[in-house]
Amino acid sequence: MAGSEFQLIQSYFSEPDQVERSDLILGIGDDCAIVSPKDQSHLAFSIDTLNSGIHFPHNTSADAIAYKSLAVNLSDLAAMGAEPAWFTLSLTLPGDDEWDDAFREQWLNLFSQSLFALAAQHNIQLIGGDTTHGSLSVTIQVCGYLEQGEGLKRSGAQVGDIIVVTGALGAAAVGLDIVLERNSVQYSELSDNDKQQAVQALNYPQPRIKEGLSLQAVAHSALDLSDGLLSDLGHILKASHVGAQLQVEQVPLASALSCLDKQQAWEKALAGGDDYELCFTLAKKDWSRIKLEFPHFVAIGQITAEKGLRLVAANGREYKINAKGYDHFG
Ligand code: ADP
Ligand code: MG
Q: How far apart are CA 212 and CA 207, in angstroms?
């Protein structure tokens, strides 16, 4: 590795006050990291890459990029019901022709502070990585603990299960419209506070780790909502060989959707991405207990033996959707 890269890792990623886990044997600085997993435990792995201009707009702050890169990975652990333990970071940074030293320094300061702040919240430790030059891109791989036999799969949904989401949907999709200055007319009536919350939802998704751990013993299937409810729920239905009926009016709408008409609001909530709430299914008999523990969870439908996803209104009217997704429902 080049001297400057060594210095960069030393300066920004070998943080002395970072989380120090007792199950880490050897961290940043050698050819590999070494961990010592708890006896009898299983380990869950996930990896996600965020590319500038594709997964986040070019003008996104370093703070938000760091947060989101780790948060979306933590969200995968949450969706599995796993407990976060360690992560690695592969960072591709623009070269000297695009970023001067002062900018790089400022960027890395913001990036690493934000990264370590979120890591501390979830007791997950950075144990290694890679640093290269190219178009800005961040890859994080996380690893977490599961008890033997645990793991909330997509394939466990059973006929009669209630379908639940852990929070309101659609804010991040509005946030993306706002930062890309799309559909501004639609959002002209939105309060500054709602706009800010929508952009916050896009850049700082909250990984539902605590919820995932609590659901471990009770959910039959689960995933996190990254591509939009309709598309993601489709993964559960396919993997579980079942269908579902969704009560469209039950889907909890983010307050940023208040300025849209009902049809547009549902479209955003059902098809918009980047929510990072969990969607899970559980037996009817367990629902009231879970609702008591997590009052903000919302039941939005049931698993059916009949294949396919049907959207129904309270008056029983059925919304037709085609295989492509949200565009033509309603
Ligand atoms: P190698 O040449 O063996 O791939 P590197 O020069 O890539 O080693 O990295 C040296 C050490 O620094 C390794 O322990 C690696 O895990 C760590 N490292 C490199 N880049 C990062 C990064 N962005 N964040 C955390 N650790 C890093
Ligand atoms: Mg390397």
A: 9
